[in-house]
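Notes, p. 3: input format for complexes.
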Amino acid sequence: VLVVGSGFGGFHAARELERRLPRRVAEIVLVSPDDHLTYGPLLPNVASGVCEPRHVIVGVHAGLRRTRHVAGVVESVDLAARTVAVEGLDGLRHELEWARLILSPGAVTRPSPVPGLAEHALNLKTLEDAINLRDHVIHQLDVADAIDDVEERRARCTFVVVGGGYTGAETAAQLHRFCNRGLSRFPRLRKDDIRWVLVDIADQVLPELGPKLGDRALRMLRRRGIDVRLGTTVEEVAESNVRLSDESTLDAYTVVWCAGLVSDPLVGRLGFHTVAGRVLVDATLRVPPSPDVYALGDAAAVPDLTRPGQFTPSTAQHAQRQGRAAARNVAASFGRGQERVYRHKDIGLVVEFSPVSAVAKPLGIPLTGLPAALVTRGYHLYALPSGSGRVRIVLDWLIDLFSRPQVVRVGRGTAGEKSIA
Ligand SMILES: Cc1cc2nc3c(=O)[nH]c(=O)nc-3n(C[C@H](O)[C@H](O)[C@H](O)COP(=O)(O)OP(=O)(O)OC[C@H]3O[C@@H](n4cnc5c(N)ncnc54)[C@H](O)[C@@H]3O)c2cc1C
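Output follows (421 residues plus flavin-adenine dinucleotide):
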């Protein structure tokens, strides 16, 4: 059984296959350029210096017992020959055979036609992006602290986040907190110099939470000092400014693009039927008309049986459960257990602004403030796969609560490297 991708979907598929298929029945091979699963929901914690980067990843070799990890990128799939072409980390191409194929290559940032965006905006999708973003912000504050020109200093201290979904809202709130808490490291900067702007084309933030809780989240963000601009989009990005659709131009050296994902480019090369760029699967996660190919997670359009006519959203909770469901159905195809359709009712969304402030809707119950923050962190601890070292994350959270942030660059992106391209 060949699994593509070591994210939420692929990792959990491999783990469940290990449980269900004995070694003599099937070999499990996981192909991914990464040797780990990245726990994406904690990337804003990494970008804001709360969690150590290594603590939010789970090593494939630590979390899986007998899966063979092939470090490389699947370039193409030959359905007739039942092979995949893999480009290894050494750049060489080789072929691997499969009897069952599970595709879980996730998503990448959606390319946008906005002029200047690809060259000048930052991303928050990978661990590297999170480290890069944190370094970039500290770099801007360092420059601002050293200069006398008031306008230039203000531009260096202005940070624009595009996208009011969970990634954008968490990034703006958590990095705003990081800047404020780290201010004493920059003796010439004042609290008023720091400005975080959150821009979204929609007329509410966090639409996943519904209008009422979304409204409360908006008020909370504004109370924290975030300048939230709704019904607004970015028209052009240059190195030192951003032009918005409300006809304003913000002088800023930082734009963080959190406004949408598309399936990994591999999906487009397979020739399968797609919906909004995601591989269309049936409720058993099979890709018609290929009975031995399964797709899931952010790369797949999976019918949501709890909301007829809709597809499951791109979230970790679905990817993880779909990984397990695909493994169960693959095992059934080898005569082990029963095939079942995928059905999961969303257990809600959690969005953290700070250790004591969040919005959450667990099982449909709207929460804000400290209760939401506790539920948020509790949920992450529950959702982190075993083998991840949850204790390290709890220690990171405690250290962050009781000590001043360590405002140092760690060597990446020292010149404010941009990474969206
Ligand atoms: C900053 C951030 C915050 C988030 N917050 C939340 C949240 O609060 N709640 C929530 O539910 N979700 C959240 N998500 C979304 C969640 O992380 C994704 O929905 C989830 O990771 C999707 O899982 P996946 O397995 O489909 O893809 P991924 O986890 O992205 O994994 C894809 C894997 O496939 C590999 N890959 C890609 N192409 C190839 C190829 N050609 N060959 C081999 N391997 C390949 C990649 O390297 C990666 O290992 C967040 C995401 C981000 C980025």
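Residues 4-10, 31-34, 40-41, 43-44, 73-74, 104-106, 124-125, 166-167, 264, 266, 297-299, 314-317, 319 surround flavin-adenine dinucleotide (CB under 6 Å).
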